[in-house]
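FORM 7B: Structural annotation worksheet

SECTION A. Query
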Amino acid sequence: MSKEIRLILLLIILMVLTTWLWYEYGSRYVGYLYDLNTQSRELIDAEIPSLKIIAESVETDPPKALARFARKGVKVIVGPPTSGKASLFLPYLKKFNMVAISGTISSSRVLQSGYVFSMTPSNDYMISMIERFLEQLGVKNLLIVLDPLNAEYSEEYLALGKKFAVKSVRYYNEKSLAKVDLEGVDMAILTLNSRDAAQVSKLLRLKKPDIKLLGTDSTVNNDLINFGGSSVEGMLVIYPHKIEQEPEQELIEDCFRILENHRFLVPEQFRRFIQSHVISSRGYNVYFSGNSVVRPIYLYVVRNGRFEVVGTWRE
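SECTION B. Predicted structure
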């Protein structure tokens, strides 16, 4: 055997060995972006035997957080939990050639990037479901309460103005609602986090006790009921998941389960997997179509301090 052939064989062996070592060890590293203001904080210390999780707060400077992930060879990140934070990290996902899978992001613009995927359907998908529901109810006039701290998510709901008469207000504190005129408003749609939604429910029902309330997926958390009390009784909530314990945590766990069961050497491999596989999520088979996951959508009502299912939509 000539020296040249031996050298080529040695290089091939080294390449195979390097790939195998990366697959066995390097691909186990997963980045995790959590937010202390959401239930994602409960999984900071999650231990999954087949994964090595590196956690960073969404308040960390994005390039520093992702540079830390990159040094460990991270290619796939779990999180962040909100669309607003995802928009801040998006340029650096592109820079470091990483992809993110979130349990709860739903901004259509963020999901159209090709760098962020989510176990929650896109806002475009959810809005189409809400439009159908509102038409069935005969609703014509809406107040949409927006979250300025998660504007990337909440302001997409202004698209409802294409089919309904819409007033909107950005909620910073109770003064934000002081001059809101509820005359003629059929329903208020809250695109806030659960605690703010609880507070806004109280304020709106002080002004108009019989106002109908609908919470988007961002409001769903036991804090809505714990802090809202009687003010959220009868409130409707639309959510793409069965509410059993803490749904945000369960969706994040689904993300980790994907990475636990499958290894991804490069982001493109992850993209191909997401677009071509049916994924098990809490007893349901879900799949991705275009930029959105497709899964059952549930309509809940808050009754006697609990979320109760009153309707379901399936594709």
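SECTION C. Observations
The chain is about 35% helix and 25% strand. The longest strand covers residues 306-313.

SECTION D. Sign-off
Analyst initials: ____
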